[in-house]
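REQUEST FORM: STRUCTURE PREDICTION
Request ID: SP-0412
Submitted by: Lab K.M.
Chain count: 1
Length (residues): 168
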Amino acid sequence: MRQFLVLAAFTFAFFSCSGNRQAGTSVSTFELDNLLVVADQQVDNTITVTGYVTHVCKHSGKKCFIVGESQKTTLRVEAGGEIETFPAELIGSKLSVTGVLKEQRLSQEFIDERENNVLTLKKDGAASEEACAAELGNISEWRQWMKDNNKDYYAIYYMDGLKFEVLD
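STATUS: Completed
RESULT:
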């Protein structure tokens, strides 16, 4: 009986450890256009996202921006892990980027303050009509997203990159 218990305990420990190792290497993969549907469930998880590079920060190369197939969804990727910098030559390339999804929340108070600042700049003539209209349009979209998603904040998702692969 004692041998059976020792064998059972060993078997349980073996499969528990090997299961954990396997789960730790599993990374969900998303097309960027599909990520936003489940992004709130993926915050702080390591995921892989595919998209096209539209911009690489010129001075440091520490950030790049990717878009999905629809070109309506953008994600900022910060260099980290195996990524020292993003070369400018990546612009236009399709990438598979693995990293940790992060979320920055813009509170209702922040959005109200930003709107008031834009309206003041517009009233004082300190900013162009086009710039103010664009920013007020963004704020309107944020408010609509908050309403549609029943949230008291606007979520901005970005990724702390760990590695990338050029797909084309």
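NOTES: Residues 1-23 have pLDDT under 50 and may be disordered.
Reviewed by: T.R.
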